[in-house]
Amino acid sequence: MENIKMAYFAGGCFWGMEDLFRTRTGVIDTEVGYIGGQNENPTYENHPGHAEGLKIIYDNTKTSYKELLDYFFRVHDPTTLDRQGNDRGSSYRSALFIQDEEEKKTAEEVIKIVDESGRWQGKAVTTLEPFSIFWPAEDYHQDYLVKKPNGYTCHFERFGTFL
Fold it and tell me: Quick check: 126 pLDDT over 90?
């Protein structure tokens, strides 16, 4: 079980992020929820300061945190502050919820690669926030785009790997 890891990302509406990450090699499971905010037991209607986040459970013998970050920076625009597509506000911020120094170092390295690539018109505004409690979202949000394949998303793979 030591090869099973978890990563916590936020990059806009959690439906689109989950739908794309669920099929990645090495990803075992995904769950959408709220993270980084001010209240306990947040809900969709009441989650002040929380980002719409994604918990990714992965096998690090099949994919790495760095590879997950590479994909993260390809499927959302990390240069828009508190916005993805039509969604606006801090709930939709680009953020990585860091669990240890190794993740922090890897995140900083990948952000530098992304910024230096010039693929985005600006620099990444992705925040590195300390991991806090991840609160699962309501059931109707889980696997939303599987349940509603024509549902809203602003996430898509924009270009190939940064690595």
Answer: yes
pLDDT value of position 1: 80
Report in angstroms the alpha-carbon separations of 17 from 89, 101, 133.
Answer: 17, 24, 19
Of 36, 42, 34, nearest to 13 by C-alpha is 34
Q: Within 13 A of 70's CA, how many CA atoms are on the CB side?
A: 13
Mean pLDDT of 107-112: 98
Active-site annotation holds for 13: yes
Is pLDDT at 124 greater than 90 in this prediction?
yes
Rounded distance between C-alpha atoms, residue 118 and residue 108, angstroms:
16
Tell me the C-alpha distance between 36 and 15, whole Å.
Answer: 18
133-153 per-position pLDDT tens digit: 999 999 999 999 999 999 999
> Is the distance from CB of 52 to CB of 32 less than 8 angstroms?
yes
CA–CA separation, 70 vs 89, rounded Å? 24
The one catalytic residue among 5, 8, 12, 13: 13
